[in-house]
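User: Can you help me understand a structure? I only have the sequence.
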Amino acid sequence: QSFVPSPTSDHDSIMLVPAGDHYTMMDFATAYFREAQSMQRLKGMSAEKKSTADLVQHTKVPIQESLLQYSDSEMNELAIKNFKTLMRFMGDQSKLKNQNEVECIYEILQLCKEKESLHDEVYCQVIKQVTRNPSQESVLRGWLLLNLLTGYFLPSNILMPYATKFLQLASSDPSSTHHDIAKICQSNLRKNFLYGGRRHLPFPVEIEALLKGHGARRLVVLMPGGIEYLTRIKTFTVAKELLQEICEQMGAGEQEEIQEFVLLAMKNKMVRPLRSEEYLHDYLLEDELVTVTLRRLIWRTPLHFENKIYTDVHYGQMLGDYLKGRILFSYSKEMEMQVGILAMLQHWVKTEQQNSAPSREELKEYTPKTLQSFISPQALQDRVDMLLRTRPPLQPVDAKIQFIEHVMKLPFFGYNTYFVKRVSDDTIPVPCFFGVNKEEIIAVDGTTQVVSCVIPLKELQKMRTLRPLSDGGLPGIELNYGSAASPKTMWLELSQAKEMYHTIVVILDKTELHH
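Assistant: Let's start by predicting it. Here is the structure, written out as C-alpha cells:
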C-alpha cells in the first residue's frame, strides 16, 4: 500500500455541462451507435433523424446487437444479455425462474465491475429504456439503476458530456416524476469523478431498501464523551459530507477546523481512520458490527467553547486519552502536581461533587492507569485536599474548559500515540511509543519520555504495511524517509500497524489540503 494520493484527473472540463442543444443523446447515437451508422449509409436525412430518435427511446423488444460497435464478439454477446437482464429488472420482460430484482441489479453491476469497456454500453441501454417509456413503474426502476451506475462507474470521456447533459435536462424538468433522482445522479457522477466511486458493490439489504424507496440508512456516530449523533446517510455519502454535518452541529463550521477532525470505522479492535473522500458505505457492513466514531486528529485551529457539545466532545476525547495513558509524560514531582490538578478538575465536572472531597477510589479513577503504580494514593489525596481548600470550586462546564486547557500544555499533547514492540533501528530502546502529529513522527521512551528519533512528515517518501512474520506475530509498518541523497528505511512492529498507517495517510491528506 502506498500513501501517495492518486492525482485527480486533469479532465475537469469533462464535468462541465455543455451549453445549448449540442451533446444530446441523439447526437451521441448518430455519431456512435452501430445502427445509426448503418442507417446513414442507407437512408435520406429526414427518415434518418426519425430513426435515430427511435434508437435512444424505450423498446419493448430486446436488442439483437450491442448499441455500440464492438470488434470483440464476446462484448456484443454480453451487451445483448445485459439488455435482457435490464428489461427483466424494469418489468419489460418476465424474470427467469427463481430470479429476483436484486439479482438482476447485481448482474448488471457485476458486469460493469468486470468489463470497463461495457460502461458506455450499459449507460446507453439504461438511458434508452427510461426515455419515452410509457410505464411509470418501469421508468422509476431504470432511474434507480442509473442512481447506482452513476455512483459506481464512470462513462468514458467520450460519453461523459452527453450523459451529463442528459441528467441535466432530466433534472431541470420539474413536471417529470424523476427530476429529483436525476439531481442525485448528477451529484453521484460529480463525486465519482472527483473521488473515484464506491469500491464495494452494495449488500442485498441496501438494494432492497432502495427498491422500497428508502434512499438513506440510519447511522449512529459515537462521539467522545459518550455522546451519540444520530444521522441518515445516503448510498454515496462520503466522509467529508458527514464530517461537515457533525461539525456544523457542534459549532465548528469553518472549513479549516472541519479538516482537523476524522471519522473512524471500528470493528472488534481494528480501527480505520477514513480519508475525507472515502465512501462511508464501503466501511459499513451489512451486520452493523462496524461502529463509526469521531475524533479530533489535528490541533492547529484555536479552540472555542461557546457550544456545549463542542466542549463535551473535546473534554471527552482528552479525558479518555489522558486516562488511557495516550498522552505521555514521565514520572516526576511536577507530574504529581499536574495529576492532582487534573483530578480536582475531573471531580468538579461532576455536578453533585461540587462541595465534597474525592474518595480514594474516585482519585484512582481520575489517575492515568500508567501512573497509578508510581503515585502514592495518600500523597495524591493530601495534594487534592489542599487544592480544594485553596481554590473556589468551578462550575462543571468551566472545569471541563480548564481541564482541556491544562492538558493542551502537556509536552506530548497533540500526538497520536502507538505502543511499539520492535524497531529495526537499534538506537531506539524498545518497547517504546511512537507519536504522530501534523508535523512529525517521534519515538519516545515509555519510562523516561526521552525522544530518541524524529522523522519530519515532509521527509516521508513512502510507507507500507507489513504482514506478521510468523503466526501470532505482530504486523508492522515500513517507513522510507530522508532525502534522495541520503535515503533511510525503518520498520516497526505494533498491533495497531494499520491504524497508524492510515492515521499518517489522513494527516498527510489533510495537511496537504491546508497548504
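Now, to help you interpret it: The CA atoms of residues 53 and 93 lie 23 Å apart. The first strand starts at residue 216 and ends at 223. Let me know which part you'd like to focus on.
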